[in-house]
Amino acid sequence: MISYKQNKFNLLREQSEGYSKLLVELTSSLGPSHSPQNARPVESYAVIEDRVRPVWDKVISLIGYFDLDPNRALDIILDVLSQHLATHYTFFLTLLSFSPWTGSYLRPFRDEKVMDTRAEIPRGSFNKKSLDEILELVETNSLSGRPPNVVKSGDARVLAQVLGFKFKYYQVRYHNIPEFELITYLFQSEEVPESVPKNLYLTAAILIREGFITLEDLYLHVSSHLHASQVELIFCQLYPIDEDMEKYRKDYESDVHTRIAGAKNSMLAMAAPLESVPSSSQKSKPIPNPDVKRAEVKDTNQKAGLLVGLLAVGALKPAVALLSKFPWLVDVRSEIADLLIRILKVSISPLYESLLITKERNPSFAHPKARHGLSGISYPPPRKPILTLWAPTPPSTYTTDFVFFFPDWVDRVPISTSLDDLENVIEPLMRFVSIHISRDPLFLTKFLRLGRLHLQPNIPTDIDSKKPTELHSEHPVRQFWFTVLRRYLLPALPLIRGNAVCTVEVWNIIRQYETVARWRLYGEWKDHTYRSHPELRIRAVQADRESKGILRRLALNTIDSLSGPVAKLAHSNPCILFQNAVNQIMAYENLATVVIQALRYVTNMGFDVLVFIILGAFANPAKERVKDDGVNTSDWLQSMLVDILRDKLLTTS
To answer: What pTM did the predictor assign?
Structure first.
C-alpha cells in the first residue's frame, strides 16, 4: 500500500484570514496615486520599485504561512489592480514583474526619471513597408525598447488563465447550480447576466501591451454573447466559434433593415386618425398591459470589448490582428471607429502642424471666459483634472478636465513625418475605419488639406497660362488620391450632415483631376457607393425622403426659407438631391426657375455634380427626344433646355 500526502490549499470559503491579510497588504502599500495633471506617477520608478520589492516578499510569506493557493492569490492581485487601475497601475505592473508570471515584461531603468522618452525613428523609415512591419518597428523603438511580446516561460500562461476565468464568469453566472439542472434554469430564469466591467477590459489590454500575456492565450477564454439556445457551449467550448461572431454580425444587419424600414415609413401615415367629437356611447377600451420584456445586457461581445481596450491603451499589433479577423466590428461598435480616429489624429498631428500651422493657437479658446456681472468681473474657477478610463476622453466641462489614465498609449503610434507617410501609415489604418472617418470632420479636414499639398507638385500645368491642364497623369500620387476619393472620401461625405467645409476640401482634391475622371467618380458614387455599406443604404433612404420633401414644398414664396436646407443636403448628398430635382423639372415645366434660385448657397462641387446629372438625363436612351408626331421636341427636353440653358447653369462650374 502506497501512502501519500495531498497538499490542500486554503480556499477562500474555508478560512479567509490569509486572503484578508493579503488584501490589506496590497491596499496599504499602494502609495500616492498618479498625478491627475498628466496621469503619471508622482514618484520616480526607483522609489516605486523599492516600495514594491518588500511587498512581494510579504506576499510570498503569506502564501507559504497560510498555505494560500497561488492562483487565488494572483486572482486577488488582479482584482485589486482592476479596482485601482486608473491611479496605481504602475505599482501593480512593478509588483507582477517580481512574480513568476512576468512574461516578457521588462522593467524600466531605475535611474529613469521621465518615463515618456522614446527613440527617434529616421525620416522615411516607413517607406515600402507593410502595416505590420511599421507597427513592429514602432514597438521596438517605443518607451522601454522591449522586444515584441513573446512569452518567456509557461508561468505567464497561468496569468492568462486566471484572467480568462474572470471573463468566463461574465459568460455564465450559474456556478452553484448542478449541471443536470442548469439547462432548465437557463430557460426559466429571469436573471440577467452582468456585462464585463470596463476596467477588466483595460486591465487585460495593459497586460497584453506590456508583455505579461499574449492575445493568443487570452483569446481562448473570451467569448461573444451567449444565448439560452447555445447551452452546449457551456460545457464543451472555451472560445467562441466563428458562427457566434457571424450571428453578432447578422444581428447588426437585421437592425439595419429595421432602420431602413423606419426611414421609409411616414410618421404622418403611421399616426392614428383624428376624431372630431368623442362619442359618449363609446366606452374607452382598457389599455392592455404590455408584456414586460427581459432586460438585455448591451454590448456583451467580449471580443469587441477587448478590442476597445487594446485600442484605448495603444496596443496596436494585437488590435490590428483582431480587426483583420473581424473588420465589420467597426460598423457594429462606433466606439472602435472613434478610437481608430484618435490614433490617426495623433499620427497626423505633427505633420499638419509643421506644414500648415503658421501661428500659435490662442490658448484662451480652450478655457471659459470671465463673466461680467453687477459686482464686477467674475473669473471662472480653475478646472479640476480627473483621471478617467474612457477613451477618447469626454469633453471638458465648466469645472472639470478629463485626463486619460494611461498616457503612454501614444508611444506605439506611428508618427507621420512626411507627406509620403499619408500613403504608408494613414491609409492602411483608414482601411479599418472606412466610411466612419465621417465621425470626425476635424480629422478629415486636416487629412484633406495635407492631401492638397501632396497633390500640388504632381499637377500638370500649362507653361503659358500657368493653369492646370486636362492631361491625364499616371503619377502614383495622383492614382493614390483617386483611390482615396473612391474608397473613403466620397462614401464618407453623405454621413456628414450640412458641413460645407468638408465639401469644399473634398472639392479641392477632386478639382485636380480632369472632367472625365471626376464624372467617373460621380457615376460610381450615384450608382454603386450607396449600396456598398449598410449605413450608406440607410442614409440613401433618408436623403431621398428629405430631398423629395423639400422639393414638394419648394415654391416662389418659400425660396428664402428652403435655400438653407437645399444647400445642406447638396453638401453631403448632391447626387440624390439633384437626381430628384432633375426628375421634377422634367415633369413640371415651371419648376426649373424655382430650383435654380434655391441653389444660391450650393458649393462648386454641387454645381459640378449637377452638370453631370443633367448630362446623364440628356443621354438617357429611354427618354424620347421628340413627340409622337416626330417633329416637335418633347416637353421634358424643352423644359430642361429653355430654363436651364437660359440661366447659364451649365457654365457655373
So the answer is: 0.85
